């Protein structure tokens, strides 16, 4: 089954040299987030309570797919965000949506006086807010990936945003969400710009991902000064129940 994601938008050299953001999970797990990396061969992933992101080499071979299946476990559903090749026989695609990747192209980044730093003690409230707003994966240890900022009203957490993938020189803004009762107040915008300010203060560049169908978010990001860098895909595949060599050795009925 062929799963070819969209081509990049103008950020490759004439020799088609891959950009660090073409495989941001791999760049993160071999760079600033190397201390999180769980590895088997050339396949890396975050701990399952930190992030579902997993990193294949740019051009995985049969050994890499076998290592991926062994790392995840027989029959496991594995996220393959951004993967643009084919999956081997025995693998089943279970989920796919088109995505887009945006990069900072003139954000008016600035700190926010109402934003507070969130940490491990805030995780129960963060998980509750995520469950109600569904901005994307956020797990019990995701807060360890970077800076998370929130806005509280009467003590309750009503909006947040933070940092996820961290390729060298770049940081992804993620988990942008607002309690439905407080939408329309510009809280997401304020938090995006505040998180971006912290990223820029480190000399890095903000970027982010969203669904290609999330037109409201795309309009917001473009209005803030993000530029579309590439089209991608968010997909998942189920690993074979048995390793390839075991299947090959099985008798034919």
From TrEMBL:
It comes from the Bacteria. This is Acetyltransferase. Residues 113-245 form the N-acetyltransferase domain. The keyword RNA-binding does not apply. Keywords: Acyltransferase, Transferase.
């Amino acid at each position: 089954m062929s799963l070819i994601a969209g081509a990049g938008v103008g950020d490759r050299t004439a020799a088609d040299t891959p950009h660090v953001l073409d495989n941001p999970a791999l760049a993160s797990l071999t760079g600033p987030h190397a201390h999180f990396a769980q590895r088997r061969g050339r396949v890396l992933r975050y701990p399952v309570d930190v992030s579902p992101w997993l990193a294949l080499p740019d051009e995985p071979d049969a050994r890499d797919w076998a290592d991926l299946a062994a790392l995840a476990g027989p029959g496991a559903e594995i996220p393959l965000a951004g993967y643009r090749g084919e999956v081997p026989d025995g693998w089943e695609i279970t989920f796919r949506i088109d995505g887009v990747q945006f990069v900072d192209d003139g954000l008016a980044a600035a700190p926010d006086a109402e934003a507070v730093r969130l940490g491990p003690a805030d995780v129960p409230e963060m998980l509750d807010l995520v469950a109600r707003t569904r901005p994307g994966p956020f797990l019990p240890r995701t807060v360890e990936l970077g800076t998370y900022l929130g806005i509280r009203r009467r003590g309750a957490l009503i909006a947040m945003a933070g940092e996820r993938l961290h390729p060298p020189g770049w940081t992804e803004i993620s988990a942008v969400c607002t309690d439905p009762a407080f939408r329309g107040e510009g809280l997401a915008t304020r938090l995006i710009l505040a998180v971006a300010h912290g990223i820029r203060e480190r000399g890095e560049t903000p970027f982010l991902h969203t669904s290609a169908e999330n037109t409201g978010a795309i309009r917001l990001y473009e209005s803030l000064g993000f530029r579309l860098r590439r089209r991608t895909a968010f997909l998942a595949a189920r690993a074979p129940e048995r390793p390839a060599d075991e299947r090959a050795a099985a008798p034919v009925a």
